[in-house]
Amino acid sequence: MASKRNVWLALFLGWLIPGLGHFYVKRHAHGAVYLLLICGLYGAGVALSRGTAVNLDIHGAYFACQFFAGPITLGLEVLRGHEAINLGETVGVLEHQSGVVYAATAGILNLVTLAELFRRQQEPDAPGPADTMRNPQSGESA
Fold first, then answer.
1. For residues 93 and 97, what is the distance between their CA atoms, to the nearest angstrom?
2. Do 42 and 69 contact (CB within 8 A), yes or no?
3. pLDDT at 1
4. pLDDT: is 17 or 125 the higher one?
5. Which residue in 22, 24, 51 sits closest to 42, CA to CA?
6. Cα dist. 111→61, 66, 92, 98 in Å?
7. Average pLDDT for 5-30
8. What is the pLDDT of residues 38-54, one digit of tens each?
9. Helices marked H in the chain — which ranges?
10. From 59, 119, 122, 139, which residue has the greatest number of CB atoms within 10 Å?
11. Cα distances (angstroms) measured from residue 1 to each of 30, 104, 123
């Protein structure tokens, strides 16, 4: 069972750095997995697109999804140059689009983990997704 901590601080920490909110509520294994997966997916998207994945001007809906991955999205938007991307010349279209989708998926995945964290903090004894494989008589995995 997760410890009862300030859920709003946990959610903020989880947005700040994916997985950090789970570390805060002492769910270390979940925090480590989320940190590696979400940050890795986001980083892969930015690297694959050569930094063009985060772009509010041409990808507003994707940017909104990427925002949930944390403040890094805002930082990248502020730091990027506002010149044209020149797809096909400086970066391939497929690499750019794949990077955009990877980073947006990371943001949505972080939003899901934050919702799970909130639910777990509000109802710590309620069964969650990981509990569906347990044998109800013994409490062990099926």
1. 6
2. yes
3. 44
4. 17
5. 51
6. 15, 10, 29, 20
7. 95
8. 999 999 999 999 888 99
9. 7-16, 20-24, 28-48, 60-67, 72-79, 93-122
10. 59
11. 13, 31, 10
